[in-house]
Amino acid sequence: MSVLRPFGDDIWLVDGDPLRFYTIPFRTRMTAVRLSDGGIWLHSPVTLTDARRAAIESLGPVRHLVAPNLLHHLYVHPWLEPFPEAQTWAAPKLAKRRDDVPWHAELGDAPPAAWAEDIDQLVFGGSKVLPEVVFFHRRSRALILTDIVQNHEPERDGWFWRSVKRIAGIQAPGGGCPPDWRLTVRDRDTARAARDRMLAWPFDRVVLSHGRCIVDDAHDHVRRAFAWLD
After folding, report:
1. Helices (H), strands (E): how many in the chain?
2. Residue 208: its pLDDT value, please?
3. How far apart are CA 41 and CA 142, in angstroms?
4. What domains are defined for the chain?
5. pLDDT of 159
6. What are phi and psi of 42, to 5 degrees?
7. Which terminal residue of the chain, N or C, has fewer Cβ atoms less than 10 Å from its own Cβ?
8. CB half-sphere exposure, 206, CA atoms < 13 A
């Protein structure tokens, strides 16, 4: 079975190792995009293995390693070892927490010139605890999210965690925003503005770092997931 799973034109998914966060089991995922200049953009790097490295190398030269929020940064540094020429991009406030990583720049509310032709972005603010940078890959019409929407596959969990995730509203096929993150969103005006900008993008599929990606009625799914902001 190939490490790479195509998700559209010039975009691939790489499943990472299962992990636990506060005892909760999670599946992880990395997204690779081939930019117009041929370089590879890696979103939320997962654990580095020889197979994953070889698969990514087969796509092109790795030029960007992206940590989209304050949680998805653990494996940026290991991926720098085989790809030392790659630029590292930190979510807002992350560089101070991970000063051991040689960050190139902080991600902002607009894409840098390095990938502006291919990928749009914005900072989904409103939470001081976990702001997240979200992305839209134009060629594949894919929205790329990390933690603010989750869609865990029930078949991957035992009965207890299936029940917990279903009650929390983050279980497929109707996954949404995790309740713990929702509680941290105190500035709803900022969050609503980010949501509306995000929904203005013409995406028709959604990459998720945790759970089943969304390929059917994706725009409506995301709209429903954020309806609690109204």
Report:
1. 7, 13
2. 97
3. 14
4. 4-229 (3.60.15.10)
5. 64
6. -110, 120
7. N
8. 30
Query: Chain centroid to CA 62: how far?
Result: 18
Mean pLDDT, the chain cut into blocks of 10 residues (230 residues total): 90 84 73 98 97 96 97 94 97 94 97 98 96 98 97 73 71 92 97 98 97 96 97
* Nearest of 149, 148, 145, 152 to residue 201 by alpha carbon: 145
Structural tokens at position 121: 């972005």
The pLDDT value given to residue 89:
98
Owner of token pair 């279903």: 166
Indicate the helix (H) or strand (E) that contains 21.
Answer: strand 19-21
Element (H, E) at 198: helix 188-199
Cα torsion 113, 117, 119, 122: sign? positive
Scored b (16 or more CB within 10 A) or e, 149-160 reads bbbbbbebbeee
Contacting residues for 148 by C-beta, under 8 A, at least 6 apart: 124, 130, 132, 134, 177, 178, 181
Bridge partners (DSSP) of residue 120 are 136
pTM of the prediction? Answer: 0.94
